[in-house]
Amino acid sequence: MAHKQDSSTRIAENKKASYNYFFEEKYEAGMVLQGWEVKAVREGKVQLTDGYVVIRDGELYVIGCRIDPLKTASTHVNPDSIRTKKLLMHKDEIRRLIGKVEQKGYTLVPINLHWKAGKVKCEVALAKGKAEHDKRDTIKDREGKREVERAMKSRNR
């Protein structure tokens, strides 16, 4: 019986990115993976927290995305868990990103990995770094939301 994959399920998320950056635009890119990496991704052996995207020779690459090999990995393959992985996007989108990244303060950050039509996709954001006071505001907002949720929960009892 064939294993049916949900049309767009999350694999891994980079929660640290929304804390460190303001997202200007989001893009979806395909990811070039080896067979053992796809198997490990299916098992959830992915960490995206330290990942970032670079542009080399007009192509996008994600660096720091860690895919840990399964214990049952093939003996003829030498798995490299922090291998640089190529991202696939249309040339005109890449050119637009190159122009924006060359502006001061912009960077490309992987936000999440997800399944789409049986393929692994990487959501990439054009982001601008947050200043320290912006990060404090983010923490303050999060704490405020928690307080409200606690109050509502205790009130409903």
Task: Output the CATH homologous superfamily.
Answer: Small protein B
Specify the CATH class.
Mainly Beta
How many β-strand stretches? 9
Main sheet attributes: strand count, strand direction, barrel closure: 7 strands, antiparallel
Instruction: List the total number of helices.
Output: 4
Count of discrete structural domains? 1
Note the overall shape: globular
Rg, rounded, reads 19 Å
Strand order of the largest sheet: 1-8-9-2-7-5-4
Protein name: SsrA-binding protein
Region (Disordered): 133-157
Main location: cytoplasm
Keywords: Cytoplasm, RNA-binding
What this model shows, in words?
The protein is of the alpha+beta class and 157 residues long. The protein has one domain (10-130): Small protein B (Small Protein B, Chain: A). It is built from four helices and nine strands, in the order E-H-E-H-E-E-E-E-E-H-E-E-H. It has helices spanning 15-20, 35-42, 91-101, 132-155; strands at 10-13, 21-31, 46-47, 52-56, 59-63, 66-67, 85-88, 106-116, 119-129.
